[in-house]
Amino acid sequence: MSRFDLTPPTDAQRETITSGLSADEHRVLLQHGTEAAFCGVFLDNKKTGVYTCRFCGLPLFRSSAKFDSGTGWPSFFQPYDDAHIRYIRDTSYGMVRTEEVCARCGSHLGHVFPDGPPPTGQRHCLNSVSLSFTEQGQPLPDVLGRGTPEGAPDAG
């Protein structure tokens, strides 16, 4: 069970956050779009820290779980906390895939595939535009004004 409050944003919070999104962020996060391969801002990020949901700030992946998949999108082998990701069967475009969304706000993140490295064998293939990044030593974002859970690490 997560130490973070997974209660969805209120309608007012959702409206405020949505109004601040760029066209690309809106298309990917809220309309389940995909950014072009090999152009996302976090594809080649080698800094140490935590990747959070661009919409609500929930921690999603640690940099220590990031790997170069060669696919053109940031890829991770393990979530920050399994409770922070929700999985949905996706049959769009004539394919059967598993979509990943933020468990708190429902924003589209990307897809997960069973061809990743050990120890999980998973490849969480994400859109950079769905993420924010907090460097180690900095406080995690508190987009919804709920505070950071007691004992929750900073980005590290």
UniProtKB/TrEMBL annotation:
The gene is msrB. It is an enzyme of class 1 (oxidoreductase). PROSITE patterns: MSRB. Residues 14-136 form the MsrB domain. GO terms for molecular function: peptide-methionine (R)-S-oxide reductase activity. Belongs to the MsrB Met sulfoxide reductase family. Keywords: Oxidoreductase. This is peptide-methionine (R)-S-oxide reductase.
